[in-house]
Amino acid sequence: MVEVSSRAAARIKQVVAERPELAGLRVGLRDGGCSGYTYLLAFEEQADEDDMVLEVEGAQVFVHPLHMPFIAGSTLQWAEAEFQSGFHLDNPNVTRMCGCGESFDVAMD
Question: Phi and psi (nearest 5°) for 13?
Answer without folding.
Answer: -60, -40
